[in-house]
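DM from R.C. (forwarded with permission)

"hey, sorry to bug you on a friday — could you get me a structure for this? deadline for the figure draft is monday and I only need the backbone to look sensible"
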Amino acid sequence: MTPNPDYIRALKESVLTAPYPALLGMSLDAIDFDSCTIGITLGEKHLQPFGIIHGGVLATLIDTATFWAGFLRLPDDAGLVNVDLKLNYLKAVSKGKLRAEGKCLRAGRVISYTEASVFDESGDLLAHGTSTLMALPGKGLKLGAAKFL
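My reply, with the result:
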């Protein structure tokens, strides 16, 4: 089963235009069953007082990548919410483009388990995390005419 390309475009656009992802400058670069890639180009707005990227930016990338990694397994009318988020910061960064790769380790009807890793431009691992996600029936995305299949 392959998702409708128009549906995937609508998902990507929804991330670009949603207030919080737009504030940070995140993009949903790729999404498939059980995986996704989130991108962000770092700037001054992402820095904390010591001149490195705020840990909340890395946490947001992991939160976002774990979410989208589990998303395509949901029924059309369901939403998804993180129940927990556990992460480790492994290396500081101050500039460049980051890539978060999400992977669904177990997709369930109600509870799913996902992981994500954040990498810098040279491929160094900056942070890693896991998340438990819960499906919410009746809380699906409204993407206009775009249908999943």
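R.C.: lifesaver. The chain has one domain: 5-137.
me: no worries. The chain is about 25% helix and 40% strand.
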